[in-house]
Design a protein that fits this description.
Number of helices: 84
Structural class: mainly alpha
Family: Belongs to the BLM10 family.
Domain Proteasome activator complex subunit 4-like HEAT repeat-like: 1360-1573
Protein name: Putative proteasome activator protein
Mean pLDDT: 85
GO molecular function, one term: proteasome binding
InterPro entries: ARM-type_fold, Blm10_mid, Blm10_N, HEAT_PSME4, PSME4, PSME4_C
């Protein structure tokens, strides 16, 4: 994938505050640092970077991570040394076959190394990629491991600027093809291979990433390999092949010398394949995907001709645009969808479908269009660009916010991706990163036209209602404004100004604010437009409003975007403000005047001096703005609801989060003067107000202020806050007594307010706090001493913040500009200026010695204070009674614990992970650790049963400098670690005390375990706060308004600083990821383990959470806690203590322990035994837990990988050069072999134990035993122990149904294992290499020198049932092309006897169990009444098992014989009166027939001699509606996917069936036909006896019974569908013939003479019958019956892929015949069916100009519309005209278009009113969906025509007949003439109305519209009758759709026109 689709840049921005949780670590990094992974060839590195970089990457890094760190980092050589040791260990692990955990651990370390932004050489990267690619596909490797290796391939190749396809890396497609083939073409691979398949997700992912690295020279080879599998006879093969091509076919250019490898050679064939599967959405998507990747990859290729259609031809590009139009799924008139349900039949092709969410179709479409554009498009009249413009113009009404539907998000995404890819291409062409030939580069003219094409729809889209949709449009707006500010910004401002002034509805205001946020940065750089910014800010202010929080948030986002773009510095005096105000008002007036098409170009209109003056003047009001803004914010905070009731993610919460984000950059960009003003206002507010519910928000704002300038702010805030805190405590008695509960008392609120402000003022402000050291220290002591109750938590929080500030490393630099720029003074050239990442400098805060001393002192005093309180509370004489009823004691204790937790996490960065692990560290604090023998082997566990610790737990081998501030020989170092240990001891004591005295005190336990978790995890980094993830999430949200595709990190300076901070944190986090455990850690873990099974569920839950977090940090801690918990589990089960059982189950099975327990065979057996015991506990919650855990455990005990085949040569490429590792490898390998052996031994014995347990236990227990015994007992080398065989063979007839089902699947697995072992020659290696022995499989060579003759001969065999030489089961050989050979099976199979003694022993043992009695019992159960409706179906699992058992019987191994079985089957069937008898018999017969089908002839014939006649007899006599589906499935199982000659007895008999017109057993007739249909479709084109069946069906199309008719119709369709095949000689011929035919390849499905004759004959018969039928006849006639049969047949053909075959018959006879059928009022079913088929016609994708079929079809429609006698028929002709017009928009010639418009125009004057109305609607629709170039001339022509018609046909005058006046004197005016005149007049009115209605949303109205409306109002509105009514209707409709926009629209009418309109509609509206 070229651009990862995660980056919907707007998404994050517009909803920045509700950002999603951060992505997984690696991913977040990859995307945040490089916005796009690049396609095609990246630009070369800049010259100044030394040679070194060029070996590593093609494009130098934009951001210099190492230079910007505040501490010195390791040098290049250290990184390389680390890499070499990594690779050495990786090499050892792989060679020793230690994949998991060994190789996985080193793979993870390697990922870590790469994530730290270290670089390896390209050549090494390519070697590693080859290695991982090979390993990911190595046979025998465990699936999870392979998945991780595949991820590594993706990580290494993710960005193309490391490895260029072809130059640096070429991968081999064949290993991947082998995997795919096994997945989707199982019949082509060895037997039983599906068991060891990789997951399909893993394969598909690999394909997506690797196909660009496959060699394009191999393209022909891939086609040769894959295309022979294509066939539409078994339709899933078509899906499979095309999906495979889409996944593995490289789309990159091949050298010009390669034969048949250029687009012109293979594209025609692709278009041909596409047309073979019409009406399938999946095919449309697949081909557009392929073509779009080709367009991208060929853009830079010079030897392929490139035209205005890219590398495609005009015909091809028109076809693709037609498909795009289909994909939008826009509804037209009354048409149904252009797609049918074909895709349901994609079969295994589904596995290879791309996920539509990750790969949106709209993205593929946009990629195809954007990469095919070039300046050549500008001159040509038809080009990709003109088609794009046409596409958007023809569907523009569907972009309108009022017109929403299923198409909305597709169109939104399409506009977004088009812009995004175009912008990216423009930027990369300009930077030279994309090397495009000069004549293809985007030119300014092309860019302009592209922006013009998208402009209108984007302006409509930004006002959409759906939040997801509208985000796409905001980003589009940003991209377009970036490309062409002069085309976009005027229109944007013209729309946004009125919305901000509140002249339109609220929704438009929020949309405008979001739009402004996205373009603010671009505006700030553009001359003239930037003068609007301050005016816009002022207008946006009212948006901050507590009543509309959504709007408030968008306003703040806009202010934030502006603050990041301009300095808030007043560059002019207050008096000068007038210049700007006047100018802006003039501009606004001008925009209002000129309306939406306003054209502004400040570059030419304003001189630089004028612009500078206006801009300076516009800044004069900034001071007032800032004060007004703060006023608004304070008002907002005063009105916020109380925060304790808020849920996260609520609007209030979002606003509170957005405030600091918006105000930080604002404060940072204020000039000193404005800053002082703001500070004064803020300080005054804080000291005089207490707004309890806005406490946090206010604290954040103070913090934003303090960060910007600590010196000024702290001087104001600290003394004031401390003074107020003391006065609250001393004078108001705040927090003077203990309170319980969660509400803060009103008396304490002011205190809490001030403490919160203080705590946020002292964080991230650097060493400025040292000036106030005493005051801060004293107030902390004072508050801890005096305060009681809830406020104490806020006090602890203050200490926490102060510690963070003193000990962390962070940047204290928020300025928008570099210090030297600020020093020189800011002026207008700094507006929108961007800091170059290369010149960035950062002011960091590093903890100084004084700060650390202060921190330690504070830590000591606070920690010992809290510890003292704990001591007192737990003493014999606590200060608070433990008995008190209001939980005061517990509150006090938990608050002290909370204080401890906060203090520890505050000082976490000073703890050294190594010292915390109990190591003695001396010397320097950042030593680079080297192991003694220099070889970082795993700590080898002495006990081979232990799964060598999970790979995540192995120690990090390398530390990289991360700025740890202390040295081990510093006295402070010892002091803090000592203090930490004391706290740990204290916590453990508290735990013991609580367990003894307060076991039910949940609150205390919760606080205690939170402290435990922090104590263990927060070492070296404050892990519990997730600092890195939070920072990255904010960073991603902040950059979104500045992110432009194809530009690198052009972000405001504060955001670049954030990025550097994130990298610094990442290094800290890397070092503190894992640590070893000390003695104290172990004690605390034991405490937690104990509480994990507490009786109180709340305590358990907290303990489990804390334990899980702790285990992730401490290496090898899991084996420590597992035995403890297992022991508790055992006790709980013995005592039947339900709560503790639940605790243990949760802890072991639902936390991260489960992985370890399953793999560590010291504990696994115990866990299993206990788990099985829980099945007997009688409590539903425990039963539910047990069943949900089953899924986690389902693979428990399966064999470990015991043989992995990989290419050792490849691994040698990473072998360390310096030393020999063979001894280590040998040692490790032996250890692994021992481990495998011992673990297998354990499994075998546990398997036996469970087998015995299952024999006589309760069914619940037995059920679990069977599942796991099977996993542990069944092995390739020894099959299964006799006890197990006994258990399952007899268990199949167990009395309990669910046990039966389990044993059944186990027994089947056993049979499969025997087969598998025998087929692969008893050798596992053969199995992995897929080398099976099958004597019956043969390869038949193809002699296709004369493909016609060979194909005929091949097909003729299928017609002869006697003595075939071979059977062909697959459907694809030769359907599309002949390969060199194909697989077939012997005509006379040999018996399979290759069993060895192991297999024979088991077979004999089973044979002894299978007696007649066994069968009788088994059949009895099959016949049982099913438990519910769902299980009442033909059950495949029974058939599979029975066929295995029967197989044993045929070979004479069983006690029972075939004779016994035959007797039993007859008994089972009995009299066949009960459906259960039928079901059981169908299953048994299916097993007998399908199981023996490929046995030696004598065996097969014995079985078939009994079973086939029985099956046929049932079909003949006993079939009824309730058992038909069993027998149909039975037949299907026997014949599907098999050569029809294999089941000749059935085929011959069934195909001989003929219809009997006199039979009245309709059901029997139709069900037999259904079975014949099965036979034909299962055999496909191999079915050769179709002639008599077809003749029989065609002769009886007028059958009286509906069910029979439907079957006949379907059979005829099926026969014709399966007659088609192409059978080219080979792929080369296929390519050449298609190329020779046309750029679209050969037209498929040409009807044969014979077919044409049949169609004519059938329709002639229908016509004859129609004439014979008396009109109005109520009873069925031959005509109505025959017509229905034909309609079913047509419906079936038209909705499947071969619909094109019928195109030549559309115009004659279909159209007329269908219209006649719709006129049979007496038979509604016939009318409905005919209409349904009729509506299919315009949806059929026939080719343009293919023998004029489309012309003829249009003419037929027009003929009917103009001349048919029945008005219903004329009406229906119209319905299809519009659909045809829309579907073929890109394929229609001007002549056809003209024909249609003329016809519809003429039909406006139809005598029948309904037809006239419909014609008007059709005309409006056709005008609406025409591209502008076509639309405009037509509109003017029609307008003139209808106005003239209106004039020429005045309303006839009514004459009063005077007394005695002779009536005849009127002469010509006969009533008929009057009527005609009125009709013509009505037609003209409708025509003009259609023009108006074609543009319901166009605002402002097109130029001609006011004139037309006024014309109607004055000329026709006052007419009586239909004319006047129609006119008024048109005007009223116009008024209704314009209600919202009338304010704008009315300016486009002259006052006379408005008056004319007023005359018709009431006055007040138009006034």
């Amino acid at each position: 994938m070229d651009e990862p689709l995660e980056r919907h840049s707007a998404m994050a921005g517009t909803f920045s505050s509700s950002t999603q949780p951060a992505k997984p670590f690696v991913k977040a990094f990859v995307h945040s640092s490089e916005p796009i992974s690049r396609a095609t060839s990246p630009g070369l590195a800049c010259g100044e970077h030394e040679q070194e970089d060029n070996k590593k990457r093609y494009r130098p890094r934009t951001f210099d991570y190492f230079r910007l760190l505040p501490f010195p980092v390791e040098d290049e050589s250290y990184r390389d040394a680390a890499l070499n040791r990594l690779l050495k260990n990786l090499y050892i692990s792989i060679m020793a076959e230690d994949f998991a955990p060994g190789a996985l651990h080193w793979t993870r370390e390697l990922t870590g190394w790469l994530n730290l932004k270290f670089e390896m050489t390209r050549e090494l990267r390519a070697r590693l990629t080859q290695l991982y690619y090979h390993l990911a596909l190595a046979p025998g490797l465990d699936g999870n491991t392979a998945d991780r290796f595949a991820k590594m391939v993706i990580t290494l190749t993710r960005k193309k600027h490391y490895l260029k396809p072809g130059e640096d890396l070429t991968l081999d497609w064949r290993p991947l093809w082998k995997e795919i083939k096994a997945l989707v073409l199982p019949s082509e691979c060895g037997a039983h291979q599906s068991m060891r398949r990789r997951s399909q997700k893993h394969i598909v992912k690999l394909c997506l990433h690797c196909n660009s690295y496959f060699d394009p020279r191999e393209r022909k080879a891939i086609l040769d390999e894959v295309l022979p599998y294509f066939s539409t006879s078994a339709i899933s093969n078509a899906y499979i092949v095309v999906n495979i091509l889409n996944h593995i076919l490289p789309t990159t250019p091949a050298p010009p010398t390669e034969p048949l490898s250029q687009p012109a050679d293979y594209l025609p064939t692709f278009f041909h394949l596409w047309s073979l599967m019409a009406r399938s959405k999946a095919f449309d998507i697949c081909f557009i995907d392929m073509f779009s990747r080709m367009a991208r990859d060929y853009l830079t290729c010079t030897h392929v001709p490139f035209t205005e259609h890219g590398i495609f031809t005009r015909e091809q590009s028109d076809l693709v645009f037609t498909a795009i139009l289909r994909l939008t799924e826009i509804p037209v008139g009354q048409a149904n969808s252009p797609y049918t349900s074909l895709d349901v039949a994609s079969g295994l092709g589904m596995y290879l479908e791309k996920d539509r969410k990750k790969h949106p179709v709209s993205y593929m479409v946009a990629r195809w269009i954007a990469h095919s554009l070039s300046p050549m498009c500008l001159k040509a009249e038809s080009s990709i660009l003109s088609s794009l413009e046409g596409l958007l113009e023809s569907i523009d009404t569907f972009f309108h916010p009022s017109n929403q539907g299923s198409w909305t998000s597709f169109l939104a995404q399409l506009t977004f991706y088009l812009t995004d890819i175009f912008v990216s291409r423009w930027n990369r062409e300009n930077s030279g990163e994309l090397e495009v030939p000069e004549e293809r580069k985007i030119t300014p003219e092309l860019k302009k036209r592209f922006v013009m094409a998208l402009r209108e729809v984007t302006f409509m889209g930004i006002f959409s209602k759906g939040s997801k949709v509208v985000n796409y449009y905001y980003s589009t707006l940003q991209g377009l404004a970036f490309l062409e500010p002069d085309l976009i910004l005027p229109g944007a401002l013209q729309r946004f100004y009125p919305s901000l002034q509140g002249l339109v509805e609220v929704h438009r205001t929020t949309a405008s604010l979001c739009g402004l946020q996205m373009i603010a940065n671009i505006m700030s750089k553009q001359k003239g437009y930037r003068c609007h910014i301050t005016a816009l800010l002022a207008l946006a202010l009212p948006g901050i409003d507590a009543n509309d929080l959504g709007k408030t948030q968008y306003t703040l986002n806009f202010i934030q975007a502006v603050a990041y773009s301009i300095p808030f510095v007043e560059l002019a005096e207050e008096e000068k403000a007038g210049v700007a105000i006047e100018w802006v008002q003039r501009e606004m007036a001008r925009m209002e005047e000129e309306g939406q098409d306003v054209k502004i170009c400040y570059r030419e209109e304003l001189t630089d001096e004028d612009e500078a003056e206006i801009l300076r003047s516009s800044t004069a009001g900034l001071g007032q703005f800032v004060l007004a803004l703060l006023g608004k914010v304070f008002a907002l905070l005063e009105n916020l609801p109380d925060s304790s009731h808020l849920r996260t993610g609520s609007p209030e919460d979002n606003v509170i989060n957005t405030l600091p984000a918006a105000l930080t950059p604002l404060f940072a960009s204020l000039s000193p003067k404005l800053f002082d003003m703001a500070l004064e206002k803020l300080a005054e507010f804080v000291s005089s107000h207490v707004i309890h519910q806005a406490r946090d928000a206010m604290a954040w704002i103070c913090s934003a202020m303090c960060k910007v300038n600590p010196e000024k702010t702290l001087k104001v805030f600290i003394p004031m806050l401390i003074r107020n805190i003391r006065s609250e405590i001393d004078d108001n008695g705040a927090a003077s007594d203990r309170s319980s509960g969660t509400e803060i008392l009103p008396r304490d609120r002011a205190l809490v307010w001030y403490v919160s402000m203080l705590s946020m003022c002292v964080v991230h402000v650097g060493d400025e706090v040292l000036k106030y050291k005493r005051e801060l220290f004293d107030i902390a002591e004072y508050m801890q001493e005096k305060c009681r109750g809830l406020p104490t938590i806020h006090v602890s929080n203050y200490v926490h913040h102060l510690l963070l500030n003193l000990t962390h490393t962070y940047p204290i630099d928020n300025a928008l500009y570099e210090p030297d720029v600020i020093a020189r003074g800011l002026d207008i050239q700094d507006w929108g200026a961007i800091t170059d990442p290369a010149k960035l400098t950062i002011r960091w805060h590093r903890p100084s010695h004084a700060e650390i001393e202060f921190a330690v002192e504070l830590f000591e005093s606070q920690a010992s204070g809290a510890a003292r309180r704990l001591e007192q509370l737990m003493s014999d004489d606590p200060p608070v009674s433990r008995k008190g009823k209001n939980k005061e004691w517990s509150d006090e204790l938990s608050r002290s614990l909370t204080a401890i937790r906060l203090i520890i996490s505050g000082i976490a960065t000073l703890f050294d992970p190594r010292r915390a692990s109990g190591e003695v560290v001396n010397g320097d604090a950042d030593p680079i650790q080297k192991d003694a023998d220099g070889d970082a082997m795993m700590e080898e566990d002495d006990d081979p049963l232990a799964e060598v610790a999970d790979d995540e737990e192995l120690k990090r081998q390398f530390q990289y400098p991360a700025g740890y501030p202390l040295r081990p020989n510093d006295p402070l170092y010892d002091r803090i670690h000592k203090l930490r240990e004391d706290i740990g001891e204290q916590l453990s004591k508290t735990h013991a005390f609580l367990n003894a005295n307060q076991e039910d005190d949940v609150a205390c336990f919760t606080a205690l375990y939170a402290a435990y978790r922090t104590w263990i995890t927060d070492v070296g980094i404050e892990r519990s706060a997730h600092p890195l993830e939070r920072l990255l999430r904010l960073y991603k949200a902040d950059i979104s308004p500045f992110k432009i595709s194809g530009l690198r990190k052009q972000y405001p300076r504060p955001l670049l600083i954030k990025r550097a901070d994130a990298y610094q944190l990442q290094r800290v986090k890397y070092n503190a990821a894992y640590r070893k455990k000390s003695k104290l850690d172990e004690r605390l873990l034991m405490d937690l383990a104990e509480s994990c099974t507490s009786t109180y569920s709340d305590v358990r839950r907290v303990a489990q959470g804390a334990q899980d977090s702790s285990l992730k940090v401490l290496i090898a801690s899991r084996p420590l806690v597992i035995p403890v918990i297992l022991e508790k589990f055992r006790e709980a089960l013995e005592k039947n203590d339900h709560d503790r059982i639940k605790g243990a189950m949760y802890t072991l099975l639902f936390t991260s322990l489960i992985k370890t327990v399953q793999r560590d065979w010291r504990y696994a057996p115990d866990l299993m035994r206990l788990y099985i015991q829980t099945a007997a506990v009688d409590k539903s919650s425990i039963q539910n837990l047990g069943s949900s855990a089953l899924y986690q455990l389902i693979d428990f005990g399966k064999p470990f990988e015991h043989l992995i085949i990989f290419d050792r040569e490849l691994v040698e490429t990473i072998r360390p050069s310096d030393d020999d590792c063979s001894a280590i490898i040998q040692r490790r390998h032996d250890f692994i072999k021992t481990r495998r052996a011992q673990v297998e031994e354990k499994k075998a014995s546990l398997g036996l134990e469970l087998t015995k347990l299952a024999k006589d236990s309760h069914w619940r227990i037995a059920n679990r035993c069977t599942i796991f015994a099977l996993n542990m007992s069944l092995r390739f080398d020894r099959l299964a122990p006799p006890e197990f065989v006994d258990l399952v063979a007899n268990g199949v007839n167990d009395t309990h149904p669910s046990l039966r089902a389990n044993y059944l699947s186990a027994f089947t697995a056993l049979f499969t294992a025997i087969d598998m072992r025998a087929v692969y020659g008893h050798d596992y290696r053969n199995y992995l290499l897929e080398q099976d022995i099958d004597e019956n499989r043969i390869e038949v060579p193809v002699q296709a020198d004369d493909p016609e003759a060979w194909t005929q001969k091949f097909l003729a065999q299928f017609g002869q049932y006697d003595e075939p030489e071979y059977f062909v089961d697959s459907d694809f050989p030769g359907w599309l092309v002949w390969g060199k050979t194909f697989l077939a099976w012997r005509g006379k199979p040999k018996p399979f006897l290759a069993y060895d003694e192991v297999e024979d022993a088991v077979r004999t043992q089973i044979g002894q169990i299978i007696t007649k009695q066994w069968f009788a019992q088994c059949f009895e159960y099959l016949k049982q009444e099913p438990r519910d409706q769902n299980s009442d179906r033909f059950r495949m699992q029974n058939v599979i098992l029975l066929s295995h058992v029967f197989d044993l019987m045929y070979y004479g191994k069983t006690v029972a014989t075939l004779k016994d079985v035959i007797e039993l089957v007859k008994e089972v069937y009995g009299d066949g009166s009960d459906r259960n008898q039928h079901r059981a018999t169908a299953e048994i017969l299916a097993a007998l027939l399908s199981g023996s089908i490929d046995d030696p002839k004598e065996m097969r014939d014995q079985v078939w001699a009994f079973a086939a006649p029985m099956l046929l007899k049932v079909i003949d006599t006993d079939i009824n509606p309730e058992n038909l589906h069993y027998w149909a499935t039975c037949l299907h199982v026997v014949i599907d996917g098999k050569d029809p000659r294999r089941s000749r007895e059935l085929t011959e008999k069934l195909e001989a069936f003929r219809l009997d017109m006199n039979s009245n057993a309709a059901f029997k007739e139709s069900s037999k036909l259904q079975l014949i249909e099965f036979i034909i479709s299962d055999a496909g084109w191999h079915f050769r006896h179709e002639k008599p069946i077809l003749e029989d069906c065609l002769a009886h199309i007028d059958h009286p019974y509906k069910a029979v008719r439907e079957s006949i119709g379907r059979i005829i369709a099926t026969i014709y569908r399966t007659r088609y095949h192409e059978s080219f000689r080979d792929v080369t011929t296929l390519l050449e013939k298609n190329k020779a035919a046309s750029s679209l390849g050969l037209a498929p499905y040409q009807p044969t003479e014979e077919f044409a004759a049949t169609i004519r004959d059938v329709f002639d018969r229908l016509e004859k019958w129609r004439c014979e039928r008396t009109p109005g006849q109520q009873t069925p006639s031959s005509y109505t019956s025959g017509a229905k049969t034909v309609l079913i047949w047509l419906d079936s053909m038209l909705s499947s892929q071969e619909c094109i075959q019928l195109v030549p018959f559309f115009h004659d006879p279909f159209v007329d015949a269908l219209l006649h059928m719709m006129d049979v009022k007496e038979d509604p079913e016939l009318m409905k069916l005919a209409y349904h088929v009729y509506r299919h016609l315009p949806n059929i994708p026939f080719r343009a100009g293919a023998d004029g079929a489309d012309d003829a079809f249009l003419q037929a429609l027009i003929r009917v519309g103009k001349t048919a006698s029945s008005w219903h028929q004329r009406l229906r002709a119209l319905v299809n005209m519009q659909v045809v017009y829309f579907r073929r928009l890109f394929l229609m010639g001007p002549r056809q278009r003209e024909m249609l418009f003329d016809a519809v125009g003429d039909m406006l004057a139809d005598p029948q009113l309904e037809v006239r109305d419909c014609a008007a609607a059709t005309l409006a629709g056709m005008i609406r969906c025409s591209p502008r170039a076509i639309r405009d001339p037509i509109i003017y022509a029609l307008k003139e025509r209808f106005e003239k018609q209106l004039k020429d046909n005045p309303m006839p005058k009514r004459r009063r007949a005077g007394p005695g006046a002779p009536n005849a004197a009127s002469g010509t005016e006969t009533p008929a003439e009057v009527q005609r005149q009125i009709v013509r007049r009505h037609a003209a009115v409708l025509g003009l109305g259609a023009l108006v209605e074609a543009f319901p949303y166009a605002t402002p109205p097109p130029r001609w519209m006011p004139e037309v409306l006024a014309h109607l109002a004055t000329r026709a509105a006052s007419d009586p009758g239909v004319v006047g009514k129609a006119t008024k209707g048109i005007l009223a409709e116009f008024k209704k759709t314009r209600q919202d926009s009338w304010g704008v629209d009315q300016k486009y009418f002259t006052s006379e026109q408005l008056e004319d309109l007023e005359g018709v509609l009431w006055k007040s509206y138009f006034a």
